[in-house]
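All the exercises in this workshop are built on plain-text protein records. Sequence and backbone structure share a record, each on its own labelled line. The question running through the whole workshop is how a given chain folds. The record below serves as our worked example for the rest of this section.
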Amino acid sequence: MKLMKIRRAAGDELLELWGYENIHTASANAKFFCDNITRGNTEFWTLDYDGELIGELYAFYDLEDKDFADGKKTAYLCAFRVRTDFRGQGLGTKLICHVIEHIKDLGYQRISIGVDTTDMANIRLYERLGFTIKVKECTEDPCDRDENMQPRSCPCFWLLYKEV
């Protein structure tokens, strides 16, 4: 039987996962994530299956746009990924639910998540997990930074809330 483990990871693991040798060779976006992990404003959660990283999810606690994360009541989940060959087995759901419980234990009352307006599979997943309040449509991602460390514009996505 193979072992599945959900755990918090460090910034150097993020760099390795994203293909960077070190922080000096990293993109502005990777540096943004690593800096926030180091400062304790972001947690990097991984899904390990039999010693292999197959999923990732990030929890941001305070962002410039307070609709996403305000440092008190609302936290933001982003960059949720499960390796393609492991999808459809409920592993991503377990990862999200684990992180939601952790955030709830920290005293947060609401969790936000972004979803591409055309990604029906993730829309269904997030609705099933209770992300049913549509807050707004967004055209900037606060966790995707350009070379000047400014939020990058992106295709429209919805910001959804879940009360916990």
About this structure: The mean pLDDT is 95. The helical segments are 11-17, 28-38, 91-105, 120-128. Residues 91-105 form the longest helix (15 residues). Residues 23 and 40 are 17 Å apart (CA to CA).
